[in-house]
Amino acid sequence: MAFFTLGCPVSFLVGYLADRHRRIPLFALIIVLGEGACFFTYFTTTYTGLLVTRALTGISVGGALPLIFSLLSDMFGSEHRQLVSAMVGGGMAFGQMLAGFVGPAYGWRLPFIIVSIPAFICALLMLTTLKEPARGGQEAAVKEIGGGSGGRVQDSSGGGGNKEWVERENGNIPARKAVCVPDVYKPSEDGWETFKQLLRNKTAMLLFLQGLPGCLPWGLVYVFLNDYLSNDRGLSIESATLVITLFGVGCFGGLVVGGAYGQYLQGKSSKQPIILMAVTEIIGCFPLFYLLNNVGEGSSYGVALLFSMLSGFMASITGPNVRAVLQNVTLPEQRGAAFALLNTTDDIGKGAGPFVIALMVTAFGDRQLAFNVVILGWLLGGIVNGLIYFTVEVDEAACQKIVR
């Protein structure tokens, strides 16, 4: 809980800064602060020390995501964003699986060293090898006027303002024309106004909302399912752990396939990835229902493993597409704030999710019933994602219109 408590406010602060300042030095600083705490977790010997280091590690996760997707959206256009988002999610899933394999064999401390040292190396490489990408340089509308691959965006205000220009061979031209668009798309130098604009963006708002119920089943799987399968359904601890492990393997596969197929669908129509997001999240409920209600001493263990992997696969397809769609319907100078909001709604679900589930168990007096209700979070999330079908084309077109 401490991890998410500090991560949320840091996410908002970093999102604000990411939309107004150079992102690569800021990203390197966030990595050093957060992963430094992760590194020292290995050496802590007290509960207080563990609480502090884990809370500070929240700086890394809470602050990194707005920066990652703000940067990547200016490195890759909409024709690549699903795939790139899948690669980011795949890296996270790989780290979780690595910790799951290393922890039981070598103790819970070692994964903190294995994860943090490469992060320091990445921070150094970023500072020494990467250049700040042009903000908005990968937008289709900017490429149409020749400001994409060769142009760069610079802050012309001389201070912390947000007057951005695309530089071309024939001189500086404004990257934003005065066009008739809703207020939600008008860039603002006021950070709070940017957040309010995002909340008036229908597609963005639906993307934020879908994460609240959608995160509840994830909390069930990673916090409660192992204990439930071993104590309530009669599996051995080792067998229950393998079920959870294969769920993670399915997640990795879902991220890869979801990113690749979502990118293919994006090339046809911006509506088609929305159908994929909604349908697969809803389908992911059913194999998880099977695990809760049918797995036991007399059932096929192989079927349980298959259904666990299938559930993880289906539920993970949504992630890379959600992040790609959010990039496509927000302005380049709003994306730090946009991903801060998305990260916050996810953190609320992840951090408060186990607490909410525990309350539901107490209220129902039956873990099995409570857990079955929790799975419906993916159903609700899928329905909310489905509503984006009716808003995404309008919001994406309006966003590109103001970028021209």
UniProtKB/TrEMBL annotation:
Bilayer-spanning residue ranges: 26-45, 51-71, 108-127, 204-225, 240-262, 274-292, 298-317, 369-392
Pfam name, any one: MFS_1
Annotated localization: Membrane
Biased composition regions of type Gly residues, renumbered to the chain: 145-162
Keywords assigned by UniProt, alphabetized: Membrane, Transmembrane, Transmembrane helix, Transport
Major facilitator superfamily (MFS) profile domain boundaries: 1-393
Matching InterPro entries: MFS, MFS_dom, MFS_spinster-like, MFS_trans_sf
UniProt organism field: Triparma laevis f. inornata
Source superkingdom: Eukaryota
Membrane topology qualifier: Multi-pass membrane protein
Family, similarity comment: Belongs to the major facilitator superfamily. Spinster (TC 2.A.1.49) family.
Location of the region described as Disordered in the Swiss-Prot/TrEMBL record: 143-163
Gene Ontology annotations for the cellular component aspect, listed alphabetically: membrane
PANTHER family in the cross-refs: PROTEIN SPINSTER (PTHR23505:SF79), SPINSTER (PTHR23505)
Gene3D superfamilies recorded: MFS general substrate transporter like domains
Protein name as it appears in the record: Major facilitator superfamily (MFS) profile domain-containing protein
Single annotated GO MF: transmembrane transporter activity
